[in-house]
Amino acid sequence: MAAAVAFRQLQDYLNTQVLGQPSLVEHLLIAILADGHLLVEGPPGLAKTRAVQALAKGIEGNFHRIQFTPDLLPADLTGTDIYRPETGEFVFQQGPLFHNLVLADEINRAPAKVQSALLEAMAERQITVGRSTYPLPALYTVMATQNPIEQEGTYPLPEAQLDRFLLHLSLGYPDAATEQEILTLTRSERLEGESSMDNPVSQASILSARKDLLRLHMDPAVEAYLVALIMATRHPADYDEELAHWISIGASPRATIALDRCARAKAWLMSRDYVTPGDVSALLHNVLRHRLILSYEAEADGIQKDQVIDRILQCVPAP
């Protein structure tokens, strides 16, 4: 109960700091609750970095932002062994990945070796340097941003790394009314300074909330619906001829697990003790967007992944 109140206060605080992006705020909280990583894609200036910084102010734990660049080295993320001449020993100096909340800004600008180091941290919750392996904190989340406009000096993320992200959120521009509210907020911050949350959510509350998610009731019919949505990506011909033409490779079991955890987190944030089919369908786009591989024919026809997911929702009946 205390955890639920704390998260409602956190959500209210984030909505005052990040205007016009309620979906981003909700999915930041879902990622924290579901113990997963979030990839946020959108043009510059849509408060992607600001949202993660605001989240860091609202939870107990340490935060670090890493600006990904083509000349970044794995040791810049993981840390390295440093020689101490006074003792004649090597001492490990932790890198920024050892923080509770890590913002990987413009993640697609780093080369393959850096992505490999980040992948181990995301997947195994540990870091290996030389012959030693170091565990990461129990509360550990990577929030990555990606700019879809610029392609110069970028490296496409490998499918294995994309699959490690719990959610892939795509952002759009705010409307005119929200734009005016943003102007008012930025002027206020320049005059009075940025506000902060009085009582940040404790790590104990977050870990407690994660256990609460597992206790939520999910009807067998809703669970079957969830599985059917994933099966439609692997055996599209069983559901629709056009889907079979569009999808080359479907989602892995990790997508099923992610959809279950995220649907539970959404239900919990709405103060319900049960999961509805609407919770599942509402999160399908962000769970599958980075996990589907479309056929050459679909790409040649200009078919977008969101169109494919819309078609899946149409072909799989909800209970």
TrEMBL record:
Q: Where is the ChlI/MoxR AAA lid domain?
A: 247-312
Q: Which region is the signal sequence? A: none
Q: Where is the ATPase AAA-3 domain?
A: 37-167
Pfam families per the UniProt record, alphabetical: AAA_3, AAA_lid_2
- What protein am I looking at? MoxR family ATPase
In which family does this protein belong, per the annotation? Belongs to the MoxR family.
User: What does the organism's lineage look like at the top?
Assistant: Bacteria, Pseudomonadati, Pseudomonadota, Gammaproteobacteria, Alteromonadales
**ATP-binding recorded as keyword:** yes
What is the organism field in this record? Aliidiomarina halalkaliphila
